[in-house]
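Complex 232.
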Amino acid sequence: MRVLLAEDDELLGSGLKAGLQQQGFLVDWVRDGVAAQRELLTAVYQASVLDLGLPRQDGMQCLTAVRRQKITTPILILTARDGVADRIAGLDAGADDYLAKPVDLLELAARLRALVRRAHGVSEPTLEAGALRLDPASRQVWLGGQQVELSLREYEVLQIFMLNAGRVLTRAQIEQHLYQWGTEVSSNTVEVHIYNLRKKLRSDVIETLRGVGYLLPRQVKAQADLQQQGKS
Ligand code: CA
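Predicted structure with calcium ion bound:
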């Protein structure tokens, strides 16, 4: 999951970035409100962590501007421990959640996962597409009850597919979710990950729509169902 972190405090920012990365997030970090607004308007993020006290433009102004542009990215605001008024104002201005400083990293990660889930209309903590199941908290994947070992990037690609099950994704859309700033993207990376996912899961789990993109069906069949189909 690619998230935008807006925090001007160097120590807190680097701690949050490292901690979230350890929890499996890809993190782009900006240090002022103008940059935060620019990124939220132009790039694809699955969620954002927004400090309210930011230079150049405060978090509240950024939030208001972004929501006015109909950007629906889930936004979690960071507030001072005694900032009840800030929390109320932030939630009313379009924030989806808040955390008071000092931030507990595991709680932040769990709240971000919940926000992303809700943004995709998923209420269960695990993502399911028929026989395929993914647990964002433990980063584990099962097909038909059988656990499948995936690399971090393969897991990321699969998660994007599962959050968008039944929808066609272009290669560019998948790429946008996969990289934080400063990482090199070679042109066939997405294809390689999809190739590996098909090998580890099953070739029909991700369909190719020539010239359009890729699709993970809403109802991935279990191996047993496929064999049953073959017989009848
Ligand atoms: Ca600050």
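The pocket of calcium ion is lined by residues 8-9, 51, 53-54 (CB under 6 Å).
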